[in-house]
């Protein structure tokens, strides 16, 4: 059985659903092919952080525009996605962390973001529960968080109402080309004729690129998370660690979400391989040190997700010179949820008009044909304070797996 579509989107995560919705809003009728369930991969396992602060400066314009779209998402999609815009605190406990954070804040301000450094007294005014070891923080008042299941589902539902077809539990196995142009997609159930294919396959973005003989420096990174039993509302901010070792928030239902990489730092360097160990206890221990009031709160569920980590920590977006009709929207490197609204808008603009309202050339596939620098791109820019655990340039194993 074969069908025809103006666009085929591979992947029904938050990106695939956001792109489908934005295309359908402009009158297209894309087909989304999802090999498991909608939001069944990273989009259903993430922390819900909607963050502009501490991003690579190249992503800053996209992140700032995405936050504006999050502010209207409830009205736009007709569903409450539990968006809370009460700021992001990135906590420092040493002079070294403070110094790095100050520099980072200055660079982010220069890029147009409204954020500031807070001392301990100022932090306590907005979050009285931080532990004694916290001596300062960056604070971005327009950052926040949302429910990742609801955001993905809201895009999916609205897209479906606008005529998008979703083929779930169906896997794209190949992409058909003629004279360097996309002409269709093969799944395990049918052939779909199309001249535009979007690679929104998350961590499988590399395999999908391989289907058209392209390759990506994209590696899977294992990441763990947990949720606690609910308690009374304590603080609404998204919380981050100065070096990215843990992050989390209280949901609107009272449970705390925490995720992170703490506990893996030494092993990563020693073993040279990714870890598949349970680090929930290490996350809990660190959270208790930073928020002693949470001691004794029961963890009710833990899970793991896979991050689609690019070698430079930036997504791959847009058309390629090599294959006409093939569009990248993958490799979000652990912070794509916050970008989903703007990515949907930009990729749909690109497909419809061959131009975008914000530049995306920094994220083009062509950047990988240049020599990779050994220098940490984020640090060189002075914006990203994430150093030890998740900086892709410091993970030797990332290149070796
Ligand atoms: C534990 C964890 C915490 C995170 N926390 C945050 C956070 O707080 N804030 C933030 O901004 N980001 C966060 N992220 C990152 C965020 O989740 C991702 O960047 C985002 O969800 C990427 O969405 P996606 O649609 O590109 O990928 P995915 O959600 O992975 O979707 C890709 C889909 O493609 C499908 N697929 C793959 N291959 C095929 C094929 N051949 N045929 C059909 N379907 C296919 C997959 O089944 C999958 O459903 C976190 C990630 C993890 C793992």
Essential attributes:
401 residues; FAD/NAD(P)-binding domain; eight-stranded mixed sheet; six-stranded mixed sheet; globular; binds flavin-adenine dinucleotide
Task: Draw up the topology in text.
Elements: E1 2-4, E2 8-10, H1 14-25, E3 31-34, E4 49-50, H2 60-71, H3 73-77, E5 88-92, H4 95-110, E6 116-119, H5 120-126, E7 136-140, E8 144-145, H6 148-161, E9 165-168, E10 172-178, E11 181-187, E12 191-193, E13 197-199, H7 205-210, E14 218-228, E15 238-241, E16 246-250, E17 256-260, H8 265-271, H9 280-290, E18 299-310, E19 316-319, E20 326-330, H10 340-353, H11 377-381, H12 396-400
Parallel strand pairs: 1-12, 2-3, 2-13, 3-9, 5-15, 13-20
Antiparallel strand pairs: 4-8, 5-7, 6-7, 10-11, 11-12, 14-17, 14-18, 15-16, 16-17, 19-20
Bound molecules: flavin-adenine dinucleotide.
Notes on the protein architecture:
The structure is a single chain. The strands form 4 sheets. The protein has an 8-stranded mixed sheet, with helices on both faces. The two termini are 39 Å apart. The protein is an alpha/beta fold. The protein has helices at residues 14-25, 60-71, 73-77, 95-110, 120-126, 148-161, 205-210, 265-271, 280-290, 340-353, 377-381, 396-400; strands at residues 2-4, 8-10, 31-34, 49-50, 88-92, 116-119, 136-140, 144-145, 165-168, 172-178, 181-187, 191-193, 197-199, 218-228, 238-241, 246-250, 256-260, 299-310, 316-319, 326-330. The protein has a domain at 2-47 and 149-218 and 311-371: 3-Layer(bba) Sandwich (FAD/NAD(P)-binding domain). It is built from 12 helices and 20 strands. Bound molecules: flavin-adenine dinucleotide (FAD). Flavin-adenine dinucleotide binds at residues 10-16, 33-36, 40-43, 45-49, 171-172, 200-204, 208, 223, 225, 259, 305-307, 330, 332, 334-338.
């Amino acid at each position: 059985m074969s069908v025809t579509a103006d666009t085929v989107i591979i992947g029904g995560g938050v990106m695939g659903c956001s792109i489908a919705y934005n295309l359908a809003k402009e009158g297209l009728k894309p087909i989304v092919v999802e090999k498991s369930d909608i939001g069944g991969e990273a989009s259903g396992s993430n922390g819900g952080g909607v963050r502009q602060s501490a991003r690579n400066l190249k992503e800053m314009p996209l992140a700032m525009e995405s936050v504006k779209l999050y502010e209207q998402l409830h009205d736009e999609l007709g569903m409450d996605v539990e968006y809370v815009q009460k700021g992001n605190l990135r906590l420092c406990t040493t002079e070294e962390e403070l110094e790095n954070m100050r520099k980072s804040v200055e660079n982010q301000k220069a890029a147009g973001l409204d954020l500031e450094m807070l001392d301990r007294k100022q932090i306590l005014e907005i979050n009285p529960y931080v532990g004694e070891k916290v001596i300062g923080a960056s604070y971005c008042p327009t950052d926040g968080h949302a429910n990742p299941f609801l955001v993905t589902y809201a895009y999916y539902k609205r897209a479906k109402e606008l005529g998008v077809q979703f083929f779930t539990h169906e896997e794209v196995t190949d992409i058909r080309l003629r004279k360097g142009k996309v002409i269709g997609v093969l799944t395990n159930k049918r052939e779909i004729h199309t001249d535009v294919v979007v690679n929104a396959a998350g961590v499988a973005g590399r395999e999908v690129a391989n289907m058209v003989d392209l390759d990506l420096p994209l590696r899977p990174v294992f990441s763990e998370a947990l949720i606690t039993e609910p308690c009374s509302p304590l603080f609404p901010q998204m919380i981050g660690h100065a070096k990215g070792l843990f992050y989390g928030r209280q949901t609107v239902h009272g449970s705390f979400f925490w995720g992170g990489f703490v506990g893996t730092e030494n092993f990563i360097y020693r073993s040279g391989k990714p870890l598949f160990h349970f680090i929930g206890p290490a996350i809990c221990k660190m959270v208790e040190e930073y928020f002693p009031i949470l001691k004794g709160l029961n963890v009710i569920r833990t899970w793991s997700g896979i991050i689609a980590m690019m070698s430079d920590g930036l997504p791959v977006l847009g058309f390629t010179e090599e294959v006409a009709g093939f569009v990248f929207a993958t490799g979000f490197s652990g912070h794509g949820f916050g970008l989903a609204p703007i990515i949907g808008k930009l990729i749909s603009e690109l497909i419809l008009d061959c131009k975008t309202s914000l530049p995306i050339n920094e994220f083009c596939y062509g950047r990988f044909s240049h020599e990779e620098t050994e220098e940490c791109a984020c640090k060189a820019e002075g914006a990203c304070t994430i150093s030890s655990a998740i900086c892709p340039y410091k993970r030797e194993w990332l290149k070796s797996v």
